[in-house]
Amino acid sequence: KNLSTMLSERLEQLPISSIRKLLPHATSAKAQGVKVFHLNIGDPDIPTPVEMIDVLRNWENPVIRYAPSRGDPGFLDATKDYYHSLGHTFVEETDMIVSVGGSEALQWTMFGVANPGEEIIVFEPYYSNYNSIAVATGVTLVPVETTIETGFHLPSREAILAKIGPKTRAILYTNPGNPTGTNYTKDEIELLVSIAKEKKLFLVSDEPYREYVFDGEQVSLLSYMKEIPEYAILLDTVSKRWALCGARIGIFLSLNKSLIAATMRLAMARLSAGMFPPSL
């Protein structure tokens, strides 16, 4: 057998990330003196807070050990306080698992809410790496089209329901949208909550850009978690909020105790999310 016939079909079918596919072209253009604006990747150009840089510069612990599988207790406590400061005082450390960036939280989600061959509704255009994670987990993404004429806001309830079938297990959306930047309204989020409740579907809100809203306010799924505690999943990260993309620290959050317990087995299988000093 040659190497190509030894590889699994799912690995062969895995698409190249469109985000990274553009990087060699950008590097080549820069070498020729061309000014490049990196719209292909969400890497903030704001400075990482100096307090965080100082902690790394002044690190004194002689051993960097595994963190607990759920995540560093100090970081979990600080993250709980962050959500409480937004008014979501019901969130507890036990509702969260720290992931290796938001990407691992996405992998856990697709792995956990749907079996191979089952479907997740997404709104097109959507974050391109959803495709790679779906192929890796054997999940089928079912796109619902949004248009530039409406600012990429959600279509009608009927248009969404038309895409839901017997294999549908979840609705996944990014808010604010990536790559569109669309900030979904309260009515739109309530529409999705209503559909999830009616159809008994998981509702997954991917919210890495929560603080990047310049027109109105971001409506988080956190505001509706107690209404649909068994179905709601929040995916979050420190990457954009504090310009810490390279730290690879994400959050998987749900009030569904069975889901959290099962996902903890995935977290234990990879041992540790990584070190994140409580003093940060």
What separation lies between the terminal Cα atoms?
51 Å
**In order across it, which strands form the biggest sheet?**
1-7-6-5-4-2-3
* Unreliable parts: none
Number of helices: 11
Number of strands: 7
- Helix-and-strand structural type: alpha/beta
Helix content: 25-40%
Radius of gyration of CA atoms, rounded to a whole number = 19 Å
- Estimated share of beta-strand residues: 5-15%
Question: What letter string, H or E per element, gives the SSE order?
Answer: HHHHHHEHEHEHEHEEEH
Largest sheet: 7 strands, mixed
The overall average pLDDT, rounded, is: 91
Shape, principal axes of CA atoms: globular
Polypeptide structure, described:
- With 280 residues, the protein is of the alpha/beta class.
- It contains eleven helices and seven strands.
- β2, α8 and β3 (140-145) form a beta-alpha-beta unit.
- α7 (101-113) crosses α8.
- A seven-stranded mixed β-sheet has the order 1-7-6-5-4-2-3, with helices on both faces.
List the SSEs and their pairings.
Blueprint lengths: L2 H4 L2 H5 L4 H4 L1 H9 L18 H8 L15 H13 L10 E5 H13 L5 E6 L4 H9 L2 E6 L11 H5 L6 E7 L11 H14 L2 E5 L25 E6 L11 E6 L2 H13 L11
Parallel strand pairs: 2-3, 2-4, 4-5, 5-6
Antiparallel strand pairs: 1-7, 6-7
Helix pairs in contact: 7-8
Describe the structure concisely.
The protein is an alpha/beta fold and 280 residues long.
